[in-house]
TrEMBL record, chain A:
The keyword Transport applies. It comes from the Eukaryota. This is Potassium voltage-gated channel, Shal-related subfamily, member 1. The chain crosses the membrane at residues 183-204, 224-245, 257-279, 324-345, 351-373, 385-406. Residues 143-164 are annotated as: Disordered. One of its GO terms (biological process) is action potential. Keywords: Ion channel, Ion transport, Membrane, Potassium, Potassium channel, Potassium transport, Signal, Transmembrane, Transmembrane helix, Transport, Voltage-gated channel. Residues 40-139 form the BTB domain. Gene3D superfamilies: 1.10.287.70, Potassium Channel Kv1.1, Chain A (3.30.710.10), Voltage-gated potassium channels. Chain C (1.20.120.350). It comes from Gadus morhua. GO terms for molecular function: A-type (transient outward) potassium channel activity. It is a multi-pass membrane protein. It is found in: Membrane.
UniProtKB/TrEMBL annotation, chain B:
It is found in: Cell membrane. PROSITE patterns: EF_HAND_1, EF_HAND_2. The chain crosses the membrane at residues 6-22. This is EF-hand domain-containing protein. It comes from Gadus morhua. The gene is kcnip3b.
Amino acid sequence: MAAGVATWLPFARAAAVGWLPLARKTMPRPPVDKSSRSDEILFVNVSGQRFQTWKNTLDRYPDTLLGSSEKEFFFNEDTQEYFFDRDPEMFRHILNFYRTGKLHYPRHECVQAFDEELAFYGIVPEIIGDCCMEEYRDRKKENQERLAEDTEAGEATDTPLPDSATSRERLWRAFENPHTSTMALVFYYVTGFFIAVSVIANVVETVPCRPLKGTVKDLPCGEKFSLAFFCMDTACVLIFTFEYLMRLFAAPCRCKFARSVMSVIDVVAIMPYYIGLVMPENEDVSGAFVTLRVFRVFRIFKFSRHSQGLRILGYTLKSCASELGFLLFSLTMAIIIFATVMFYAEKGTKGSSFTSIPASFWYTIVTMTTLGYGDMVPNTIAGKIFGSICSLSGVLVIALPVPVIVSNFSRIYHQNQRADKMRAQQKVRMARIRMAKKGTANAFLQFKEDGGLGDPDSNSSALCLKNRSAFENQHHHLLHCLEKTTNHEFTDEMAYSEMCLTESVGYRTSRSTSLSSQQGALNNGCCPRRARRRAAMRLANSTVSVSRGSVQELDTFPVKSTNLPQQTRSSLNARAVDIKLNCSDRDYTAAIISIPTPPSNTPDESPPSSPAIPGILRNTRATAYLQDAVKISSL
Amino acid sequence: MGIQGMELFAIGVVIILFMAVLKQFGILEPMSSFEESSDSDLELSTVRHQPEGLDQLQAQTKFTKKELQSLYRGFKNECPSGLVDEETFKSIYSQFFPQGDATTYAHFLFNAFDKDRNGSIRFEDFVIGLSVLLRGSVTEKLNWAFNLYDINKDGYITKEEMLAIMKSIYDMMGRYTYPCVRDEAPSEHVDKFFQKMDRNRDGVVTIEEFIETCQKDENIMNSMQLFENVI
């Protein structure tokens, strides 16, 4: 029921007096309304901006926050007003909804912010009035597309494969994304080169070369150097066939691949050659064979794998199919009309080239597209008049669908640009976020070093502790509780990677079954690339897990190792005194970024391993190949 | 050679195009454009109605000032022009009875409120009617009800009028009722009503018969108090 009609409810109830004399049964008792019925003005304070409205206005929509008793939670006794800590600009629109019954969408606001405000105040977005609904829907769709692109970019195929991929998957990945490995890149360029060679050969072999000795006529180069061209053709076709078979083998779904456009192009490009081999040297058949060679030009479409612009163009044409269809249809109509008219106008003249209506089609097309070859020209006055009308209308008809196609192309192109930009920026963003996360984690580790976990009465630690906010203190306390709960400790990635190495050397006894499959993966790739010198080793009698974002890019960003002190176990104990006093020049931003789960560490009671291991460690270089494994084993 | 058929046609087309171009430039104005300009003037002025002063209304009705203010605010919000026409009234009233068709009854109601029969309810009509319904004496309420039933306002309720009213009320119930509304239900109800009300069995109910019978009926008397605290 439209809530604006709520104001008429008293009237409708009053009008029910008209039913009373007719009633056969007694009327039910009316609901007792205990609340004071007199209207009062409410004060609503939204982030300092005070709004005032009648209570009745808000009561119009009883299923929203402001219309129901839910707003009592926000009532401030001291100031006798309702205080909301939200955006006052948005609130203006919300309040107008109560006043006028129509919800408008402010165009300059972000769609998501608006949605969130609506959700907070309990208003369904469907109530947005017709005047603003279209804009709202468009913006929302745009936003969703953009977010979908983000997630797609996140799952983009340039993330590294898990090492458990089969060779087939790796091959497919190499084909789809040439930059993943050097071999793939080489192959990519080689095929590109051979496509170019093949196309150029096709073109050049029709160029007239100097004639052979003794003959006068110019010979096309293809016939003069037929052997050379044949060899080149064979080489190209071999490469293309090999590539096609490899792709077919590597494709995850062969049927789908065989049906895709690119594979059809591949097949069409190499088929003529094989047909030519198979076919006998028959006179009539070779005529058809010559026609088949035309299909060799399809090899040029293979370039679309190498060029994104071509792909965009193809996609645009596909998406503008309806506009193109309309263009074609209207052109056909106009051609038929004008051809008929021209034919009958020119019918009388002798020697006129407008011999039939289909013959006039050619004239009409040439005129409408403003080509004007001049091979067919009207002679009569009527013919000339209609001819000029024809050319004018041709310009108009063709100009109409073109902007639609152009705008479509522009939209798709920009989308693509945005996707690429997003992907590039994503890496930087992820790295920055990771740095901030490390800041938080390191803050906690620093806190531990400073003896924050120890005796709170000691004077030296008090200095450091005072610098921290209450928030940080509580947060660190929480992390500490977690450590105690799981009997594991937090550590940083460098220390973790050492542990990782010791595991690979053989000290590992994994307790968590869910990790067993991934441990193998960790061991393979988790060795850090940079050598790190460590004084002590950790034993890995328990499982170790690390949670980080997908981090292949970590290598490319120099981790500031300077602000991380040596945080090995023994060094913690040994240098506790020195480190404590350094707390003043550390300023870790306690930015709380939602860390999925904190990394865990080996328990305290594990004895340090033999010193022989560090020697091995110091000389190894390994990648900090960490991934999203997020588990903490139970005690 | 003379002008052949096609050339005639071509010349005709050229002349038509020429006239179109002239019309576009406003040089050649067809006669029909004169009539259109006069209509636009009427639409500019919107009808707006201001109610009588607050004190006058207070004198005419039994509402307090605050109640009148609250009522007017709601009224003005829904109908900024100050007038409710029948279509708007029907649509508003229909929204309270989503299951059935309330338009006929709304029509009768509209006529009951629209005292001067000018096709629209002003705020005065609205508030005076409400005052009778909510704050009036029993006799006044019964008078109002009689006025509602008496469609042609001749002082008598005939069987046809009553049947129309009854049908419209049953229409508001809609199709999905328990037990199902039979087609004879309205006329049966009308017969019962007339049995009770029509004392002298002359086929019509006068205002005196109506008031008298209702005052004797306890049910009706008790239920009259029900809607007093609606506002």
